[in-house]
Amino acid sequence: MGLGSILLTCVLCGLLLVLVALGVVAALPDNVLRGMAFWRAEILVALWGLAGVTALTGAAFRVEGEFGWFPVFGADGPSLPMLAILACVGGLVGRGRAGVACVLACLGVLALSPLVFGLFTGTALVLLAGHGKRGLCLPFAVLPACIPADSSLSVPLLGVMVLLVGWAIAVQRGPLGVLPACIGLFLLGRLLAEVGELPLLSQGVLLACGGVVACAGLAQAMRDRQAMALVAGLAACWYGMLVLALVLALSSPLGGADTFRTTVVLGMGAPVVALLGMLWVAQRNDTGEGGVLQTRLARCLLGVVLAQCSVLPPCGGFAVLWAALAGGSYSVEATQPVMALLAVMLVVFFVALGVMLSAALVRAGLLLLSAPQEEADAPAAMVLPLWVCAVLSSVLAFVPGTWLFVADHLVVGPPLLPVTWQDMTTVHFAGHAARLTPLLVLLGVALVLLATGLLVRVFGFMPFAPALRQVAAWRQGAPVYEIPPDRNGAAPVAEGCSGGGLLPLWPAWRGFFTTPAAVTALRVPGARGILPRRGKVFWRYARRCLFVAISWCEAQGMVLILLLMGAGLLAGLFVGK
């Protein structure tokens, strides 16, 4: 046996043993574990940390291969970097169904057979679905793994998978929302790498599905007032953006496709780790454990996490945006005019999503920091996950060459150039001259802030002058109307106003349309008769039958997955011919 075989055996055996131990510790009840139950959380975190370090070690040494005596699990390009990300998710979700779902997702990532991958990941999605119609719909997300990649049904099923996974992300609460995103991106990248370049219509279908998921998540982040739902919308938006970049990297004939591959790798680094920290804080906030943000240090850590998800210049989101802009530039230079125009439109849409995502991050920060807090300060151990997410995301953002070197094969493509110590701090592309050094950008931003502080201190210059006139709080932001003067030339003053003759129109119109008389006048008169009554009875009967069918599917979730895998295997055999 050579050194490579020994390293492969150590990495794979270590990962499988750790995952089995994680499944046992996460699933067993307290009375079975006895004295270990008190240390269950610490044991789970230690095991997930060991799994993440082992996966990163194997990815750094480019460990690839399988067991000759057990050809079920193996390691290849995307498996180990994705397993490191899933280890971060598992370290935050804890025990129970969520912990078992993370273990099953990791085993699915290491699986060599598409059927075994679908069985493990489909079971993980069933555990995430909970109750309701999601238990019936989410197992169909793994159906593309059961048919040949070159089948005519592959692209429509991939579009359905993107939509279902986006729905699963949007309804999850806490760090577990990143788990469906990792499963969906892993499956999409595997199948697109096997298919290669797609026709324009197929590309349009996948791009449209990714755009729909991103816009729906952004709308949820802008509309919801609950912290967990808001941050889940941010995660869905980020997943949709990565789907757009992944389709452009693997299935489009654009000249700068390799730069979009780097965009996906960067997007799975610092922003995802920071998003995990934000999901953890939102879950603690909505479950009544908001004391984690009581101290000033915890609020600063939350600010770091929010900044790493945004498109501020030195942060991880900015590196993703810069890579997408560079990819659009190279694509325009190397393609035909019509394709160049389409590439420009897609890049502009991607940038607009990033900017709106930053605005939603501001809303999330204001909601989390303005929530009522407990009086007692939180112990340092309670903010340890926030510490880890903030520090790790900052390292991945300011030293991006490290993550690019480790996760080189996270997306299938040509390998990167040999990495030197200087390349550890830069983002660069093979064959292109564009380079980004986040530490230099951070130094430039610090110098600008220092110069602004000197201007304010020495010359008394204030960049933002105070408002000349203060108005009541209930009138701020509302449109106003100038009341014309009366016959004597004196401008009347509205009741409740301090002066100026201003009348807020928007509260007046809103109050008019919400009065009972206005609602009664605008309401459509209900139809009366025997047909509407029978229609209501029929609708109630159909809804009751649907609820009974869904409850049966929830009770028989594993049977449904097995039937789904068998049907997909048979369909793949016939369609492949």
TrEMBL record:
Q: Which organism is it from?
A: Acetobacter lovaniensis
Q: Where are the transmembrane segments?
A: 6-29, 41-61, 67-93, 100-131, 151-169, 176-193, 205-222, 229-250, 262-281, 301-326, 338-362, 383-406, 439-460, 546-575
Record's keyword terms, sorted: Membrane, Transmembrane, Transmembrane helix
Query: Which named protein is this?
Result: NADH:quinone oxidoreductase/Mrp antiporter membrane subunit domain-containing protein
